[in-house]
Amino acid sequence: MRHLLSTRDLPREDAIRLLDIAEDMADVQDREVKKLPTLRGKTVVNLFFEDSTRTRISFEAAAKRLSADVINFSAKGSSVSKGESLKDTAQTLQAMGADAVVIRHGSSGAPQTLATSGWIDAGIVNAGDGTHEHPTQALLDAFTMRRRLHGTASRGKDLDGVSVAIVGDIVHSRVARSNVWLLRTLGAHVTLVAPPTLLPVDVSGWPATVGYDLDAAIAAGPDVVMMLRIQAERMNAAFFPNTREYSRRWGLDEERLGRLRADSIVMHPGPMNRGLEISAAAADSPRSTVREQVANGVSVRMAALYLLLSGANTEQVRPGGVR
Ligand code: NCD
Asked: Coiled-coil ranges per the record (predicted)?
């Protein structure tokens, strides 16, 4: 794997392989010494043009646990705020010998530009571009679903027949897009649930069913309910009457939580607006995978960096020692 830019064109076998390697990486996380020497001497740059807490520290932890050197570059306080272009930034990173660049950018397509521009030789990982994609989030979500559904016997498995309701601010969500494509590839059925104003204008090309009624979606008994954050920072107009009305109709409150199937799980990529799209009762319930998602994110990102940088693309990771 040269770059990880999207899930839309990620082949099924590559996705399963990445998830399986993430299982091996998760085994390493359970050891007393959580570090592997695999990427010693490699340099990973975290290039973040948008705010992030968990994704940035997750990539940092992943790179460090593989013994890579990590450089954190945030646009604020850098020459980017002086108007330096993406090209000049990329060429600076190239001159510093970056082997991988993990990029988060407000513009959809920025990681693709870096990967195809010829400005830099590094492997590029998309850590969220505009409203386009966030592939490692979808992969960690799939990993979390697979583990909850198949337990320790999840290696090699996909998500065939699993039903997933993705609820909330779909139109602004790169997480929703990456999930829709990956879940399709892995055999799951996706229902998008949102007010019409928070759905993209044309979802006819999306491999998903669309609904406007959260209660109807819950009555259908999905295996997974994935709540999305209301992305107020991307809204320049009113997308719903007010927050009370939104949470009354599309929020996962305690009462709706009680109507979910006993074995279904509740996911949220974070950061959460508690009391808006998700109640504290739902976020903190035993069904919630929110903290597992964060922990699994490190394993999945270790797997992604390993596949990009180890040069061992045909080998499997052995829990006893990654070669
Ligand atoms: C998501 C993102 O940045 O796209 N968060 C994340 O990566 N954990 C979703 C969001 O911001 O709501």
From this structure: none
